[in-house]
């Protein structure tokens, strides 16, 4: 499992863009994690799936609500990672009103989750291999803090914990 001090996995995630601009076309666009994290402080949080109960009711809304506070604490970007495709992440972004606050990044083949050693096998529930629920503060591509949830828990990967760590 990835740990504090490690470099984040350098994989390609997908982000759905609603509008053209800043070199992005409408639709799925590749995001190379190593390049995208270089020189920035990023609050990354990952969860098992888009539109799932805890993820939609608590995890994403907390980061949306506290986005301005996180940015004031020195966070350049907030990334939400899930083992879903860019189209699902785009629809979820619209539903959760994340525009301008949280980048919704699809880890469709679980490449980031696997490389980080943070997978969750939900095959018995018909969901296959997913990402564990966690958050991490990443500074210039390196893990500064890591908060991994126990199975079925939502206690340490929330926006409030991340905000305290970003301020600390």
TrEMBL record:
It comes from Caenimonas koreensis DSM 17982. Keywords: Antioxidant, Oxidoreductase, Peroxidase, Redox-active center. The active site is at residue 55. Pfam families: Redoxin. Belongs to the peroxiredoxin family. Prx5 subfamily. InterPro entries: PRX5-like, Redoxin, Thioredoxin-like_sf, Thioredoxin_domain. CDD domains: PRX5_like (cd03013). It catalyses: a hydroperoxide + 2 glutathione = an alcohol + glutathione disulfide + H2O. This is Glutathione-dependent peroxiredoxin. Thiol-specific peroxidase that catalyzes the reduction of hydrogen peroxide and organic hydroperoxides to water and alcohols, respectively. Plays a role in cell protection against oxidative stress by detoxifying peroxides.
């Amino acid at each position: 499992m990835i740990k504090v001090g490690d470099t984040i996995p350098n994989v390609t995630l997908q982000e759905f863009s609603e509008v053209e601009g800043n070199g992005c076309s409408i639709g799925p666009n590749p995001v190379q994690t190593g390049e995208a994290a270089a020189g920035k402080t990023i609050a990354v949080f990952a969860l098992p799936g888009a539109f799932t109960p805890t993820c939609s009711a608590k995890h994403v809304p907390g980061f949306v609500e506290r986005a301005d506070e996180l940015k004031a604490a020195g966070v350049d970007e907030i990334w939400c990672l899930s083992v879903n495709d860019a189209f699902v992440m785009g629809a979820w972004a619209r539903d959760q009103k994340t525009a301008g606050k949280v980048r919704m990044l699809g880890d469709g083949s679980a490449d980031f989750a696997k490389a980080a050693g943070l997978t969750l096998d939900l095959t018995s529930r018909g969901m296959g291999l997913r990402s564990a629920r966690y958050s991490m503060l990443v500074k210039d591509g390196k893990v500064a803090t890591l908060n991994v949830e126990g199975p079925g828990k939502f206690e340490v990967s929330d926006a409030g914990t991340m905000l305290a760590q970003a301020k600390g």
